[in-house]
Amino acid sequence: MHRIHISHQAIFSFAAIFFGTQHRQARITHMGFDLYGMVLRRLNKALPDPAYNTNDDVIYAVVTLSIMEMFVSTGAGNHLKHMDGLERLLALRDHSLPCSLETTELYRSLRQMIIFAALRSRRASILARPEWKKQLREHVDSIDRLMQQELFDILAECTVAIASRDRILSDPQMAPEMSRLVLSKLKQDALSLLEQLSSWRERWDKDEQHRVTEVPILHNNLDPPETDLQAGVLPFATSLEYPDDFAAITVMLYNIALIHVLHILALLTSHPPGSLPDEHSSGSLPLTNKDNILIDPQHFPNIWSQTPETQNLTTNQSPHPPNPFLLAKKAPILDICRSIPYHLINSHRASSSTLHWALATIWIKLRGEESVVGRWVVRVVRERNPLLVKTMRTLAQ
């Protein structure tokens, strides 16, 4: 019975540490860290126990510690370490046994955290395995929720593609011919994901209940524009309104998936002869496993730049136009930007982890405040929910 309450202690620890640090109450903070140490010790004893390490209580405890790391970090990378540990715990689950509605809902609530961490860590997620795709479809009561699960499946496949690409590029024993062959197969797999997303969007848009409306952006609802905002013009004049929060979150998840698939395809697509070097050449250093996969390599042009050179690139007036997949990412990025006002209308919508994931994604792709769009995003978020600015930047690291 003593072990049943590990998750409760983890929650108390989180609450004490967060409250203590926010209100500068050293005694409460110290008490929270004492509880935190106790939780870690109890978890270390419980994890090797096959009779207990598949208990939901252990899952809740690890998830709580992981969430805490996003607010009060106890060390660099600890959030990702907790999520890696969580996947290892889930891998111990026996899928041949019946799964209750409560446990299935627990799994579904963890999908986003697990996939986000796997993408950030550049490792394949267990959620790409057939048994997990099947498990996450149990006790689903609507077509819309099944369609949302399709998006999580595609994002899980993105983790596999990213890990496979890293493995191929880092294998010194693989012959160049074999490397090109395997990368070509990987590109075909990514193109298949793109086709799935295209089919998904067509099916989603056919339902009149999913109709999105456009609303003019009222700049006078914000603070007066700063000087630098006048240096460029926003590439959109309307924001997007959704019929309900589920539809808004699902479409945002679609755009996140589309950005990742297009980015993978951009990385896998070779440059034409005589153009910029690829990752195998000495002129371009490949990303390391510590880097966020969404960060553009140095040879990728900044498609958000207002310089004449970049304008020529994006309008195909250059002898070496940029990768078409690179340019295609602009549409989903701008759709997320246009959805931000809807999600910031109240604190409930603003608490969505999908919104946080989307903000981190576009913050990387917009290269922060280097572009007028990036400056507009941070200005809107700071105006409506200042705490989210820190969350966005932290998750984008």
Describe this structure in words.
With 397 residues, the protein is an all-alpha fold. It folds into 2 domains: 1-88, no CATH class; 182-395, no CATH class. The chain is built from 16 helices and 2 strands. The longest helix is centred in the middle third of the chain and has 31 residues, at 176-206.
SSE topology sketch:
Layout (H helix, E strand, L loop, with lengths): L5 H17 L3 H21 L9 H16 L6 H13 L10 H21 L8 H6 L7 H27 L6 H31 L6 E4 L21 E4 L3 H24 L39 H7 L9 H5 L1 H14 L3 H4 L2 H13 L6 H13 L2 H9 L2
User: What sort of overall outline do the alpha carbons produce when their principal axes are compared?
Assistant: globular
Question: What share of the residues does DSSP label as strand, in percent?
Answer: under 5%
Q: Please tally the β strands and state the result.
A: 2
User: For the residues shown, what is the average pLDDT?
Assistant: 87
Descriptive keywords:
single chain; mainly alpha; 397 residues; 2 domains; two-stranded antiparallel ribbon
Compact summary:
The protein is an all-alpha fold and 397 residues long. Helix content is 61%, strand content 2%.
